[in-house]
Amino acid sequence: MRTTSTNKPRTRAVIVGAGAVAASHLTAFRAFGDEVELVAAVDPDESRLNTFCARVGHVRGYTDLHKMLDAERPDLVSICTPPALHVDQVVRVLRAGAWVWCEKPPCLSLAGYDEIVAAESDRGPYASFVFQHRFGSAARHARQLIAARELGRPLVAHCQTTWYRDADYFAVPWRGRWETEGGGPSIGHGVHQMDLMLHLLGPWTEVRAMTGRLVHDVETEDVSTALVRFDSGAMATVVNSVVSPDEVSRIRLDCSDATVELTHLYGYGNEDWVYTPAPHVTDATRVKHWRGPPECEPSSHTAMLRHLLAAMDAGERPVCSGAEGRAALEFVAALYKSAATGLPVRSGEIDPQDPFYALMHGDVPERLTAAGEETEA
């Protein structure tokens, strides 16, 4: 698939969905241009497809996924379409023999995710989901420090995705609807930061949550909050919003020997991570080691693609796939269930018999969208 010293052919890649997020996949493929060849793009909107193909150059355009799979036989397919389409498209691509790199959220339910995993084969093809914030050098460094207890014992965390989206944003027909988006900022926006929180802190034990529709005239929530307890004993607060004019993405983790804090918006570099030692920590060499790895790789699709291509070469399950890729989606389902029921939800509780397994709103959407005093038209 990939160009190597033995001159193997490049990975033949395709992008499905020529909207805005496709640009991030295109940038990543171009960064690995010696190893990856973008051969085609797919979009049902001919005008958008033609614009994309003209901008890229030397790619064939298709309005039908099935025709593309039959004609191109790609090795890797990026799915950059609305989330309601993911399960059907990912399963079809896997069954055609290609690996999948799919945008977040992976799909609209745990049932859909498990359907995708069932379509995978031993040694591939596999589906990997875009949680690119795991892959910056600073996140790798922080995770190593936390796992080795070099910052002491994890105690308290805060995970914040407070963004702003106006009524025009929700004018896109599939947004703000349970059937086509699967939920509000909990699944569509904050899932990146929540995935990074889980990546840093490990398994969680229980979640207690509230959701509400405070501003926007949509079906789903536009704000959610949660309290989380982790297996380690650490406790966290989580806030997701699309009604916050001062936008920020933030993770703060207080350990017994230091606080580590990440503040950014849509991506970070090493400089966005700050380590503050506890007063009793006086070893300057130790503190200097915390404050950044020697390499500086920003979080990005490009950083993630390197790992996916290596897994393809090895015929191994890639990162953000299988059980690992399911973790953030299970956490979101638990958040919604807790908000709807008013009860704590424990990890692993949502099984195929649970109504929140097949539907993020558990067939009780009205319990998740307590309205504010007024909504945006």
Q: What would you note in describing this structure?
A:
By secondary structure, the protein is an alpha/beta fold. The chain folds into two domains: 11-133 and 302-318, NAD(P)-binding Rossmann-like Domain (Rossmann fold), CATH 3.40.50.720; 134-297 and 328-368, 2-Layer Sandwich (Dihydrodipicolinate Reductase, domain 2), CATH 3.30.360.10. It has helices at residues 22-31, 46-56, 65-72, 86-95, 110-118, 137-147, 178-181, 185-188, 191-201, 284-290, 301-314, 322-341, 355-358, and strands at 11-16, 36-42, 60-62, 76-79, 99-102, 127-129, 154-164, 204-212, 223-230, 235-241, 243-255, 258-264, 273-277, 345-346. It is globular, with a radius of gyration of 21 Å.
Give descriptors for this structure.
377 residues, alpha/beta, Rossmann fold, 2 domains, 8-stranded mixed beta sheet, 6-stranded parallel beta sheet, 13 helices, 14 strands, disordered N terminus
CATH class of the largest domain: Alpha Beta
Mean pLDDT score, rounded?
A: 95
Estimate the strand proportion.
Answer: 15-25%
| Cα-atom radius of gyration | 21 Å
- Residues in helix, %: 25-40%
- Which class do the helix and strand fractions yield? alpha/beta
- What count of helical segments does DSSP give? 13
Overall tally of structural domains = 2
Number of strands: 14
Distance between the termini: 51 Å
Question: Which spans of ≥5 residues are poorly predicted at pLDDT below 50?
Answer: 1-5
InterPro entries: Gfo/Idh/MocA-like_OxRdtase_N, Gfo/Idh/MocA_Oxidoreductase, GFO_IDH_MocA-like_dom, NAD(P)-bd_dom_sf
Protein name: Putative dehydrogenase
Domain Gfo/Idh/MocA-like oxidoreductase N-terminal: 12-124
GO molecular function: nucleotide binding
